[in-house]
Specification:
This protein is an alpha+beta fold. The chain has 16 helices and eleven strands. The chain has two domains: about 10-210, Metalloenzyme, LuxS/M16 peptidase-like (Cytochrome Bc1 Complex, Chain A, domain 1, 2-Layer Sandwich); about 225-425, Metalloenzyme, LuxS/M16 peptidase-like (Cytochrome Bc1 Complex, Chain A, domain 1). A hairpin with a 2-residue loop joins strand 9 (about 285-290) and strand 10 (about 295-305).
């Protein structure tokens, strides 16, 4: 286990920030290069470009061919790239003696990528295949609908299509690399069997040679909300109900995360017990707070079973029960619920502290999005000081906003968006511990 205190940030002359978590004797190193460039930075009509840039860099440079990179991975090392909404991260798990080689590969492909036309054609083909597969995945379709209605007419709400992928050219890739792949928009996080001094020296020798440039300014997305439904002939209906919520730099984020835990973070959560166990209305339900740099999303996700007749009735009942439980948290949080949520978060922190990969991701993302690495022990202390009244207040803040609602599958029985708005404006009532939600008797 490592020290839970936040590591210090070292900033190189070119603007690259470095955070190191020393774990002597672990025998390996996890390394992540985090970059403030993601799907939300794709130009309109070129959705998927940010993912394409990352994938194309893995085809190598004049110094490190695709084969060189694959051969490096054959010897117990691992290298991959992931592009998300807000950022891209290049990850490597290597033996300590191979850290310099991994850093050299990343530096070389960023400074002088091949960007070969045949490689681009291959990656575009693979991207289009992935888009087609996603259309067959209800969860992926639902996620796209929710994103599009929550952030309507904004880059963060758009999704890649075959048309947008087909428009991508080598010139587009080069322009994005020039604009976004700059050291001042990067964080290098290293966790494992490498001391801080050596790690910084290797980073200076490699990534420290990238030219100094100003980081681009990003426009913060604005939550809009609304309703989006796609009727499909499926055996199941999936729904998402989302609200704007505290982001990673908001002091209310701790209470929002605990609210998600209490409502739908486990098998003893309110929604799981009330909607699934007690009433049998869904096969799965959850709630969570996704904290981003400029705000977040509090999302309730649920899915019905495969009995069409019964599910129509279940859907009709499910939404009012969910809305009631959400509103009830604006007034009623029990000491037992609070303790369970705190214990769950405490356990997740304890487990994460034992993981080099988890610590690497935590250091990289918090430094990139919050400006500095967070101290886990301090975060845990804050969670332990959150009160029921704090959660009530944050629940009021979240659930008073106009929501985004998305549904995929058979839609019969779903209340209208106007009815959902009405349900979310009802005044919650005090419940006795053993009583059901008002006007919502359990199914026989």
């Amino acid at each position: 286990m490592t020290n839970a205190k936040a590591p210090q940030v070292t900033t190189l002359p070119n603007g690259l920030r470095i955070v190191v978590d020393e774990r002597p004797g672990s025998g390996f190193v996890n390394m992540g290069l985090y970059l403030m460039y993601g799907n939300m930075d794709d130009p309109q009509g070129l959705e998927g470009l940010s993912c394409m840039v990352g994938d194309m860099l893995m085809w190598g440079s004049p110094s490190y061919s695709r084969k060189n990179i694959l051969d490096f991975c054959k010897n117990g090392n691992e290298i991959f790239v992931v592009t998300e909404t807000e950022h891209t991260h290049f990850m490597a798990t290597v033996f300590p003696e191979n850290l310099e080689n991994a850093l050299s590969i990343f530096t070389s492909v960023i400074q002088n990528p091949l960007l070969l036309q045949e490689s681009l054609a291959y990656e575009k083909h693979m991207a289009m295949q992935n888009i087609k597969r996603s259309r067959e995945n209800p969860k992926a379709v639902l996620a796209g609908l929710l994103k599009a209605i929550a952030f309507k007419d904004q880059s963060v709400g758009r999704t890649a299509s075959e048309e947008s992928i087909s428009r991508i050219t080598r010139e587009h890739l080069a322009a994005q690399l020039e604009a976004f792949y700059v050291p001042s928009a990067m964080v290098l996080a290293i966790s494992g069997d490498k001391d801080k001094e050596s790690a910084i020296a290797l980073a200076t020798k490699t990534l420290g040679t990238l030219p100094t440039k100003a980081a681009p300014v990003r426009t913060a997305p604005i939550f809009v909300g609304g309703d989006s439904r796609l009727a499909q002939d499926r055996s199941q209906t999936g729904i998402r109900l989302a609200f704007p919520s505290p982001g990673i730099n908001d002091s209310d984020r701790h209470a929002a995360i605990m609210l998600g835990q209490i409502l739908g973070g486990s098998m003893d959560s309110r929604l799981f017990l009330e909607v699934r166990e007690k009433r049998g209305l869904v096969y799965g339900i959850s709630a969570s707070n996704l904290a981003m740099q400029h705000g977040g999303l509090f999302v309730v996700a649920a899915g019905t079973g495969d009995d069409a007749k019964a599910e129509s009735k279940n859907i009709e009942t499910m939404i009012p029960v969910i809305c009631h439980e959400l509103l009830d948290t604006t007034r009623n949080i029990t000491p037992e619920e609070l303790q369970r949520a705190q214990n769950s978060i405490r356990m997740s922190f304890a487990q994460a502290n034992c993981s080099s990969a988890s610590m690497c991701a935590f250091m990289g993302t918090t430094t990139l999005l919050a400006g500095q690495p967070r101290e886990r022990s301090e975060s845990l202390r804050i969670y332990q000081t959150v009160t029921p009244e704090d959660i009530n207040r944050v629940a009021q803040r979240i659930f008073s906003a106009k929501p985004a609602f998305a549904a995929v599958g058979p839609l019969e029985g779903l209340p209208s968006y106007e009815e959902i708005l009405r349900l979310m404006q009802k005044e919650p009532q005090k419940k006795t511990p053993d009583s059901p939600a008002p006007s919502m008797a359990p199914r026989s």
